[in-house]
Each structure stands twice: as C-alpha cells, then as structure tokens.
Amino acid sequence: MLIFLLSSSGHKPHLNMNLLLFLFVFLGGNSGVGKDTAVSMAMRGARVIIACRDLDKAEKAVREIKFKSHSLNVFHMELDLANLRSVREFCKNFIQREKRLDILINNAAMPGVLDCTDDNFSMCFGVNHLGHFLLTNLLLPRLRECAPSRVVTLTCSSYKYQKLDFQDLNYNLLPFFTYCRSKLANIYFSQELARITEGKGVTSYAVHPGFVQSSWTCHYSVLFRMLMQVIMWMFFVSSEIGAQTVIYCAVSDEAAKHSGGYFVDCRPATLRPFARDAGVAKKLWEASERLVKLV
Fold this sequence. Notes:
Layout: E1 18-22, H1 33-43, E2 47-52, H2 55-69, E3 74-78, H3 84-97, E4 103-106, H4 123-145, E5 149-154, H5 175-196, E6 202-208, H6 222-235, H7 239-251, E7 261-264, E8 267-268, H8 278-291
Parallel strand pairs: 1-2, 1-4, 2-3, 4-5, 5-6, 6-7
Antiparallel strand pairs: 7-8
Helix pairs in contact: 1-2, 1-7, 3-4, 4-5, 5-8
C-alpha cells in the first residue's frame, strides 16, 4: 500500500510509510509520548506497528490509537527489549512479515532502577541502549532498502550529568546516574548511526521530548509516586506536547537536513562538548557490537 505522511511544512514526502513505533512499554504501554506519537502518525496515514512485551497493554493501546486516529492501520507485535533473544526473534518475524520500514522510533525506556535484564545487563543500559542498538542494527538492511528512511531515538537532557566509563558500561549502582548514562549512550548511538549511514538514505535523530507527565513512577514506592505526581502536574508537560518533537523529526523536511542532530522543542539543540565526541561514539558502537554479539 502506498501511504504518504504529511510533513509539518505542508509538503508530502514521497515515502511509502510503514512506521514501527515503540511505546513506553516498560512505563505503561497504554499512555505517554509513544501513544500520542502513534496517534499522530496514524492520522497522517501511516501503517503503525507498536512493539510491546505486554500483549494485553498492547491490544488496549492499539484500540485507543485506532479510536483517536480514526485509522484501522495500527497493529502490534510482541517484543521484550530486556531480552536480546526476543529482539532477534522480533526482527526475524518483522522482516518476514513486513516489506517496508520507513521510520523506526526507538521510544521504549526504563527509569533508573537497580535491576537486570535477562542477559544480565543493568536494566537501564540493557533496555535503553543495547536493546535498541541490536534492534536497529538488525532492521538496518530493511531501512536501507526503503530509503529515504529515518531512525528517531528518544533521549533526555539528563545526559549532561554523567559520562560513560568504558571500564564499567554496565554501571548499576546509583539509579539516577545509571539512567543518565543510558541517555548519553542514546545520543552517541544516534550520532554514530548517522555517520555509518551517511549517503545511504537513512537519517538519524536524537530527541529530548521534554519532561513529560507519564507513569514511570510505577517502579517506585507509593510515597515517591505521590510526590512525583504533584511535581509532574506542576512542572511537566503533557505527553501530547512531548510527542511534537518526535513527530517533527519523523516527518519534517527541515529535520532531514540534520542527521545525527539532537533536537529539543522541534529544533536542533547544542550538546555539551563531551556528548559530541565522535571517537567516544564509535568506541561505544564497537563495544555494543561485542556485547550483543553482532561481531
């Protein structure tokens, strides 16, 4: 099926859109930036596939997205980013089932929790970086076949509070710092992906959606959840607002000129100097290849 996405500039990019979108599956798959992005993409005519480990939440999200977007072209597939075998199985099934992949939005995330994935990586590093890293690499041939295509990876401005330690990439001691490192890894990943795919029709963007009201506090105590609900209500933006920069990088003609860029509020933003180090980005890519056994 030939489907067009309407860009924010009002032009129709000539892309046959099959949008693979990751909801915040670990933070409540039926809400958040992911669902609002999916609604917007479905309204633009995209075929939307959400990937989620909780099939009940995925089915509920699909129903809600269909209802809000007035589109029946929304589907889900099972995927657990905390399990690399699940990532490989998902990619195998996806490639067998789907002939196109035009936009991949890496939106799943874990907050800072002291827990481990099924492959014994810290949950933050394993899900937020390694899961997306393996998935994107396995789907990269299909993205290249469908060029021009895009990869949008969500990150957070909290990247600025930590640097990577290559002696301990799997850092899992202080939850907030663990989260910050995983978000910095997302930025390096997006930059190196842009370098690797330069001239091959695939562009890459890192997006900070802002501090968004969501259900990420479900992993913490009741008292902490109550406190954060008040803070989020007072200072955080809605998920609909948070989704706008993700949507912009997915469909805007202007964004296409800034592959490897970091976006905030629908415009390129300046990173701290250490987060623009191409040598570190390449080193992380090579280390990640070894960790997920791509080499």
